[in-house]
From TrEMBL:
PROSITE patterns: NA_SOLUT_SYMP_1, NA_SOLUT_SYMP_3
Topology in membrane: Multi-pass membrane protein
One Gene Ontology molecular-function label: monoatomic ion transmembrane transporter activity
Recorded catalytic activity of this chain's protein: iodide(out) + 2 Na(+)(out) = iodide(in) + 2 Na(+)(in)
Family membership: Belongs to the sodium:solute symporter (SSF) (TC 2.A.21) family.
GO biological process: inorganic ion transmembrane transport; sodium ion transport
Species name: Catenovulum maritimum
Protein name: Sodium transporter
Gene3D superfamilies on file: Sodium/glucose cotransporter
Amino acid sequence: MSSVDIIVIIIFTLLVVGCGISFAGSGKNMKSYFSAGGALPWWMSGLSLFMSFFSAGTFVVWGSIAYQHGWVAVTIQWTMCLAGVVIGFFIAPKWQKTRVLTAAEYISERLGERVKKVYTSIFLTIATFSTGTFLYPVAKIVEVSTGLPITNTIIGLGLLILLYTAVGGLWAVIVTDILQFVVLTAAVLVVVPLALQEIGGISNFINKAPENFFSLTGGEYTWSFIFAFALYNLFFIAGNWAYIQRYTCVATPQDAKKVGWLFGGLYLISPVIWMIAPMVYRVLNPDIAAADNEGAYLLMCKEVLPVGMLGLMLGGMIFATSSSINTALNITAGVITNDVIKPLYPKLAESKLVKIGRLTTVLLGLVTITIALLVPYMGGVVEVVMTMAALTGGALFLPPIWLLFSKYQCGFSILTTSILTLSINAYFKFISPWLFELSLSRAEEMLLGVTTPVILLVLFELYYRATKQVAPRYAQYKQLESLKQQAEKEGANTDSGSNNAANTKGNQVIGFGILFTGLILICLAILAEKGNLVVALMASIVTLIGTWLIFKNKTADVEGVYEQA
């Protein structure tokens, strides 16, 4: 890695952290700190959802699968597109109508405090562990590219990420997510033509590829696995507490629909673009060790990118993959503050609760760093991510989604479904292989994890409907929902001014960050000895987008002044 690449990484790091910290004064109350005021533009929330989800290890986990099995990595990710479309039509608007700050708040209102406490305990335990698995791929990318020890990288990156997340709240998460989306998209679009040029064009790539490399399935990733993984993604994207936040922080149900649809549309196109690089690298270098598969994407980038572009790509990938971390830290801290601390101390001022939220974010970040350091001892990141998906996906995320559509499910049925499913999954994952040498395949694990809660909830639903047992708290919940709607209408005018100001500032910070990135790309196009035309084209597009966002906001500010006059 050249000195130019290192300089670009440092500049981009300062840019991202600076954009996040610029929202230090935005978290004046719980709603602004944890939900950006509840009136976030749908496109911002949709891009943030996209970045938060794919960054859980796209370039490491799916890149490794693309290197080994080819097109199957794209097939797996297309299940996320289907999930986004379904969520947009049916589930996202339901979440928006709940008008809650966290999913735990919804569970409390619908099922009561006792159920919320159990669910919150399970969620916090699993979410804290999962966040550590998000941090490991980020550090792995840095290790492959720079040779820095992964332990030092995990600690350094973890501290940096929790800094701007703790200071800026959800607005810091949203703005940095969008900046990362633009940077990473530009960088990836530079990699693709250069990688294909390296192998002699598309036709040469196809001709030299291994047999069945473009099959929709392969290896342990069978159609049974794809079906189960599609269900898992539907449950996970619709019911993960961090992603629910993206549906509830927009102003209307229609906006929530657009969030889901934008996510689905991006996941139709992006996997094809992302996975070309590791697939080409397999054809060029078919014999790298299995342990190095996780770095296939970056190894391809190191071969083809011009000077400085590797640094920008690496910076984008670091902070893009860290998006899952800052999202998880923000929502987990929100649950602890809003649903654990606030009920215990109801008289605490909003300003003190925000301070507690920031402190909680820091403490959770330190735990995340510790868990990330342990990932290599758990079988590697692919094994850990897939195991977590099979164990927890259906058990934790489907029951709350089901509540949105049923007036019959109660605390007993929801808790029984979650706890029983988790127990069954854990038995077949950890106990039966040890006692009876009975292990499930990847597809069988995933199928068991997603079908068990479906079966249990269907049985409960049929029983309660047959006996006409409406959930005891349902009528109370509907009354509370009506009161919330009324309060929202009365407070709409009061909040609109501050929300508009926050949205305007968000646009301005995003525009500045994108424009600055465009200027970096222009400098790199001048320095490039190869691929300079491709880099120059991307630089022009990015610069125009940043300029348009800044000009648009200045025009809006002027119009607002004339309207007030």
